[in-house]
Design brief:
Strand content: 15-25%
Number of strands: 7
CATH topology: Rossmann fold
Shape: globular
CATH architecture: 3-Layer(aba) Sandwich
Bound molecules: NADP nicotinamide-adenine-dinucleotide phosphate
Radius of gyration: 17 Å
CATH class: Alpha Beta
Strand order of the largest sheet: 3-2-1-4-5-6-7
Largest sheet: 7 strands, parallel
CATH superfamily: NAD(P)-binding Rossmann-like Domain
Order of helices and strands: EHEHEHEHEHEHHE
Distance between the termini: 41 Å
Oligomer: single chain
């Protein structure tokens, strides 16, 4: 029996990268998974097959989170597949993206980044909290960039800083129900989003940023999320937890 046996977990952006690693880790801990994807259907289906091999076949839900209408569509898909009432134990808001950014960025970048990185987690939490059991877990995948000045990624950092505050406020709101709300703040992690680390030069630069002198992997973040999703983390809420391998130590 795993630490999450009997729990049901939704992971957004589970098709690739960090979300995929989180889904795999939660499934290995015994959770029943609801895998969300937007464009990478084949990858999500392949992951579902892999997880089914552990014993529990996951459900798949889809929707581009840049469209607010898709939030309700995702909630409906969840209700159709696993039912109404309090059916969810764990919600991991992982889906996120980058767009052209910086002090001169345009409105489409501003709106597009806010929509996926901040608006979607807010409304998913708002609409799914009524589906969450007492003792539930919400984990938001933020970023170390929420706490440092990098003007070329300032809009992205602003959305993640907003996610940190959302974490704080919802933690207070849901505390009486025994639901914890925390965020993890990765540094550079090998994924499509940080594909530049796959070059020799990129790996050298990324390794030099961590005090552990290596590139961060999706599983490094997934293991922290698994802790926050477990009963072991019942006394931690409203926290923004560094998941950067010491990248931001000065
Ligand atoms: P990734 O490899 O690019 O994967 C992004 C995931 O988010 C995919 O599953 C994708 O789904 C989903 N997604 C992207 N845009 C979406 C949209 N409009 N609607 C719905 N889903 C969408 O990125 P990652 O590195 O795993 O990033 C995961 C999270 O970690 C993000 O929140 C990111 O900001 C954060 N993060 C990453 C790093 C890093 O260095 N990699 C560092 C700090 C924080 P589809 O493929 O199905 O479209």
């Amino acid at each position: 029996m795993g630490k999450l046996t009997g729990k049901t977990a939704l992971v957004t952006g589970a098709s690739r990268g960090i979300g995929r690693a989180i889904a795999l880790r939660l499934a290995k801990d015994g959770a029943r998974l609801v895998l969300h994807y937007a464009r990478s259907r084949d990858a999500a289906e392949a992951l579902a097959e892999e997880i089914a091999g552990f014993g529990i076949r996951p459900f798949l839900v889809s929707g581009d989170l840049s469209d607010i209408a898709n939030i309700d569509a995702i909630v409906s898909q969840i209700e159709d597949q696993i039912g109404g009432g309090e059916v969810l134990d764990i919600l991991v808001n992982n889906a996120g993206h980058l767009l052209p950014d910086g002090p001169e960025a345009g409105e489409s970048s501003f709106d597009g980044l806010v929509a996926v990185n901040l608006r979607a987690p807010f409304f998913l939490i708002q609409k799914l909290s009524v589906r969450m059991k007492s003792g539930g877990r919400i984990v938001n995948v933020s970023s170390g960039l929420s706490k440092m000045a990098l003007p070329s990624a300032m809009l992205y950092g602003m959305t993640k800083a907003g996610l940190n505050h959302l974490t704080l406020s919802f933690a207070k709101e849901f505390g009486p129900r025994g639901i914890t709300v925390n965020a993890v703040l990765p540094g550079i992690i090998r994924s499509d989003m940080s594909a530049w680390v796959d070059s020799e030069e990129g790996a050298r630069i990324a390794s030099a940023r961590s005090v552990f002198a290596r590139v961060g992997e999706p599983a490094d973040v997934a293991d922290i999320v698994a802790f926050l999703a477990s009963d072991d983390a019942r006394w931690v809420t409203g926290e923004c937890i560094d998941a950067s391998g010491g990248q931001f130590l000065v």
